[in-house]
Amino acid sequence: MATTIVYIGVGSNIDKHKNIDGCLTDLSSHFKKIEISPIYQSKAIGMDAEDFYNLVIKFETNSTLERLKSKLREIEKRFGRERTHIQNNSRTLDIDLLLFGSLVSKKNNIPRDDITRYSFVLKPLYDLEPNLVHPASGVKMSTLWQKFDESKQPLFRVRYNFYSHRGNE
Known about the structure:
It is built from five helices and six strands; from the N terminus they run βαβββαβαααβ.
């Protein structure tokens, strides 16, 4: 069975270290060759809440799109994420499927619109894979980042030791 390269965005603003570490542990047990971007701290957009930590994770999967989306929702739920009708609220863990191979699907929001809308998605994706081509626009992540006005959405790189903060926040 063919593998698909996937990029997901991960964010948290509740028990950030615990939830991000747990998510990485969970993903590592299901997927091979996980690559992790730097983590960035950003202000919560559209809500009055604690700052978020955000990163992008790359991995390969044999799963179908639907099975992968289901697995990501299971992980969110395991870490206390409750999906409600309220869009802008604090989150223990938010996992967004950004890219699923070269698939372009408006129905599934892939590639996810957030890539070009938010610095906390584009910058870690650029850090991880600057020469990656956006499947819908055909533009490299490096070009997208160079054109992005980061002054409106400032980011702060977080010194983060994965797995060393478990239970300490």
